[in-house]
Structure formats: C-alpha cells, structure tokens
Design a protein that fits this description.
activator (chains A, B); alpha/beta; DNA-binding; DNA-binding (chains A, B); six-stranded parallel β-sheet; transcription (chains A, B); Catabolite control protein A (chains A, B); homodimer; 12 strands; repressor (chains A, B)
Amino acid sequence: MEKQTVTIYDVAREAAVSMATVSRVVNGNPNVKPATRKKVLAVIERLDYRPNAVARGLASKRSTTVGVIIPDVTNIYFASLARGIDDIAMMYKYNIILTNSDDAGEQEVNVLNTLMAKQVDGVIFMGNHIDDKLRAEFKRAKAPVVLAGTVDPQGDTPSVNIDYAAAVEEAVTNLINRGHTKIALALGSLSQSINAEYRLTGYKRALNKAKLPYDDSLVYEAGYSYDAGTKLQPVIADSGATAVFVGDDEMAAGIINASVESGVKVPDDLEVITSNNTIITQITRPAITSITQPLYDIGAVAMRMLTKLMNDKELDEKTVTLPYGIVRRDSTKVED
Amino acid sequence: MEKQTVTIYDVAREAAVSMATVSRVVNGNPNVKPATRKKVLAVIERLDYRPNAVARGLASKRSTTVGVIIPDVTNIYFASLARGIDDIAMMYKYNIILTNSDDAGEQEVNVLNTLMAKQVDGVIFMGNHIDDKLRAEFKRAKAPVVLAGTVDPQGDTPSVNIDYAAAVEEAVTNLINRGHTKIALALGSLSQSINAEYRLTGYKRALNKAKLPYDDSLVYEAGYSYDAGTKLQPVIADSGATAVFVGDDEMAAGIINASVESGVKVPDDLEVITSNNTIITQITRPAITSITQPLYDIGAVAMRMLTKLMNDKELDEKTVTLPYGIVRRDSTKVED
DNA sequence: TATTTTCATGAAAGCGATTTCAAATGCTTT
DNA sequence: AAAGCATTTGAAATCGCTTTCATGAAAATA
C-alpha cells in the first residue's frame, strides 16, 4: 500500500510544460510568464504535489538543514539556546537536526560526522569543552560551524557568548564590596574551559583588584546537580566562607536548601549568587541572586551568523559577546 | 574554495571495481569477496570517503531521519521525552529533525508537511491537543506517526502514555482518604484533552467513588506557569479547598510559595500533589508530592514503536500505557 | 521593416548513491 | 574434462529535482 507520490514530472506532464518550468514556479523564479505560473500552480494544487526535499538537496547541493549538537536537551540552559536557534532557523526556512552529545568528545566527533554525511549546510555546536580533535573536525568540515554559549579560548571558530569572566568578576566584586573576604567558588569540572579559563579568571581578577588573597581551597569542583549542591554545602560551611558564587542553578538550589536546613542563614551567614537565572532561582526560598544571560538570543544570534556563513557572506565580527546582567534576589544582602 | 568532495565513483575508480561493489562494502552486503572488501576499504580510508546521505536517501527512498514535533524544547517535560527519543533513534542509526510547534495547530500542520517534504521515514508527535485537521494530516502522511506523551481519545494513531486518569484518580483518592472533602483541581486549558478528558475524568471518578459531590467551582483553568500558580493560590485559599491536585510542577511551586508566604501552611492547611516530578518538586519547601512518570521511557518506547512501523512490522499493541507512580514528599501529610 | 534585446521555455546533463539483472568467475561433482 | 551451481562482479537504469545552455517568441530599437 505504498502511497503514490507525485513528482515534478507528473506536474510537468499535466500542465503541458517542462520540468524546468515547474521547478521555476516552485522556487519562485521570476522568469515565468504569469499565465504559465498560474496554470502550473493549478496543477500543483490539483495533484497535491509536494517537492521532494531530498532530491532537491541532491541536485542543488543544499539541504536547507542545519545540524545542532547539544550536550543534553533536558538541560534547560542549552534547551533555551536551542529554542532560539530553531526559531531563527525556521524563519530562514532551515530545519534542525538535533543530536545529544553528552559532552563526550568521541560522541561529539561522531555526531559531527553523521551530520556532515547528511549534508547539513551548517552546524551549531554547544558544549562545555573544545579540544584539538574537535577543532580539527570543525576545520575539516565542509560546512560552517558556529559555537553557541560555548567558548573556545583558542577560537577561530565563530561564536556567541556573554563575557563570563566579566560577569563573575562583577558578581564577586559585589560580594567583596559587601565586606566578604572569604568567598567560595563552586563550579563543575575545571577541565571545562568555561570554568577554568573564564569563571575562575573572573573570580581571581575580582580578588586581585581588591587585594584579597586567592585561596585554592575555596574553589570547589563538584558536579552540576542539586545533589552535588547539598553535598557541597557542609564543606563550604566548614571552610568559613561567607559567600559563594555558583556555576549552576540546580547546584545553587542544593546549597541553599542544605544551608537553610542545617541552620546556616542565607543571606546572613552565606550569600549565594548563581549563574543561569533559570526558573529555579525564583522557586527556592530565599530566591537566588543570579547572573542573567540572554539565552534565547545567544542561540538566535548564532543561527543568524550561521545563515550568513552559509550564504558566503562576511561576518561583521567573528566573536559576538552579548550583554549579561545581574538580578538581585534574596540570597544576597541589599547593596549599601 | 569549495572543498573537494569524494564520491563513490572516485572510490570505485581508485579501487578498480564498480560503484556497485563499493556500495556493497559500504552497506555491509555480504556478497563481496573478502579480498575485494579489504581493497575497497583501504581506498575508502585513503580518500577519506564519506557516503552522501542525501544521495543515498534519494536512491533508496529512506532518509534514516525521523521528524520530532515538540511544543517547546524548553519545556522539561517534553524535553525529557525528546531525550528518550533521540537516544533510541541514535541506537537505530536514525537522526532527528526537531521542530517546535508551540502547540499551535496551524504550525503543527506546517511543520508536519515540511517534515514529509524532507522525506522523514517517520514522525513522533508530542502535543497537548489533537484535532481533526491534524488527524487528517497524519492519515495523509506517507510515513508512520507515533504519539509520545500525547493522548488522542479518538486515537487510531499509535501512542505511548501513562494512564493519566488513573493517576489523578489515585492521587485524589489519597487525598480523600485523608479526610479532605473540598479538593481543588488546578489545570491548564480544558481545551486540551489530557485535561478535559483524562485528568478531569480521574478527578471525578475519585469523587464519585467516595460519593463526594463534584463542584465545578473547584476546577481551575489557569496557565501552566509559576506565576499562574502564585496568582491562583489566593483563589484556591478563598474557595475553602484543603487540598489541590495540580497539573504542572511550576504551577504547583507557585501555589506552594504563595501559600507559605501568605501564611497558609502546606500541608497542614493545604495539601498539594503535582503531576510531573521534575527537579522543581525537590527544590520547593516543602518539597512536592508528585505523580511520577517514566518520561524518558515514554519517548524511548515511542521511538521503538516507530522503528517497527518504519520497517513494516506489526505493533504488538497500538496504545502502550506505561506505569506511573506517586512519590510522597512534604506537601502532603503522612498516610495513616 | 529590419535588427537587437529581452523574456520565456524546454532539452538534457548532472547530483551521488542504490539496485536489478546478467555476465563472469570459481568450485564441486561427475 | 565437462557440466552445474554458487559466488562475485559490473553495467546501466533510476531516484526527483536543479541548472545550464540553446532556442524561439516577443518587445524594443533603429
């Protein structure tokens, strides 16, 4: 019971024109006499003809499809970027092939290769770390790649981000200005350059500016999860830190809840600032002060850049840095 | 600077065999002499040949791509399903074209059509409501469609779900057993059949069984958001309800926080049960008792069904119902 | 009216694979 | 050594569209 499929040839025959002409009307080519166009359109309507995008892709060498590599769709941070990407892609008539990489290097390379095999016109890559292997693949790929919410310190790959270092620096400086001298930094893996080379840098810069000593033992490398947060909290409490900057909202929620439950008052005994301003920051009590990032826009801008590259246009700037903000909630004291 | 692309023809020439033979080794066809295979493989390696999936798709009429229609990737509920879908898809060597529909009927139809144009081998549909228009499109599509976490009361479309009605019935019955007689029901739009035809039904069944009267004014149709929850809370408080079943976790969080802040004690003055067991249910204080659903599995099973359909196999059952559970947290009192 | 230009159209050559069918090769078996 | 069978291979058609190039028709210019 294979469903009959109508091809451009059928339309051409019924409309008594050539396939070329049908192709022209389908693609909005202006070199078609209005009367002819109308006739063809009528046949298309009548036969319910839908162009086969695969055949078109083969013939034109453009698939109007872009690959999106994401660590994990269930991660709200990356999902938000993905939403921005998809909206803009749709606006430009591109479709998205979405694949989860779990942040695993090997998987990222595999996925990139299957995407290239599918002849995607471009790729948006999101991930926490970019190594040489990956860079080499990007270079080898015959479609442009743009990084979204993903830093590559060594980057010649176009990318869209906020200035993570500056954001952390500002947040930590705020803390310092309120008199804190022992400020903890709770991150995910330091093997990820966003942590090792940006957040940590911002943290150090803030300390430096204030002439505060950098203390290694106040930097925690835990997982990014609620449970990691609850487990880390007593450690932070023991360290004598009176404030903490956290790299992930769920983790921050874990720290907050564990603090409250163990009698550590937030923000009186411990001020907390987190990074991603997800809904979680509004739900905890106290609600969490956070860096704000234009997540949707990061994705959207990345996709816009990619469309330019896919059309062989020049990029105004290879690395775009979007503005961040800091929204004060109840996990920090009021500024003097 | 178009990058050179090596085709099956190049490989054939270099290996001094025909394209057919190369095709055979690439596709693991056993009818190739080991020596030949080895020779071809060597050339493939040397030239770094990657088969063009688009050409293959055209010739074989299978794209090894499936379309996934999702209301919104940033919705953790659907994103979880999507993760299950993608993992299984990858296992079976399929790729996912992911598109957001915003639950808008028109957009859903559009998206389905572009997916069909891209010659996807199958489609997984997630959404909150299925109308006749959509059903007609499903029928018209020449690729199989499976619903994931999406009910169609009128369904001849294969689907994977939990028994929403039974879950709500059980949750509400628990509440009733603890002596509540005025139980509110906070849902999203009643135009969505999951609410109107399943959750509401379960709610009524529970009341019925307990010979409690059904009171229209205890059923609230609000949006599914944190803010909707905070706004709804005073209304619920005024109604005199002593317990509430909520259709969405963020909304439940809003109700909980607003209650606590207005002096309504949870669970003493108001017991709350929610639906999706997302991380949010662990983060609020009190944490929220919830129905648990195997979200990942719903997606995974749906994708498994789809692979069967795409290979013209029979389905054991057209409608699969996965088990749900209820996890007690602190927003409900302890069972006697 | 004759000559250019411009416009509209069609023929046919790809795009890079799969797949069918027939031919060639290699082994067994008499 | 001949016949028969199974195994390997290749030639060529095909998938459904885009795109180039040539051509005829129509419009503009001289």
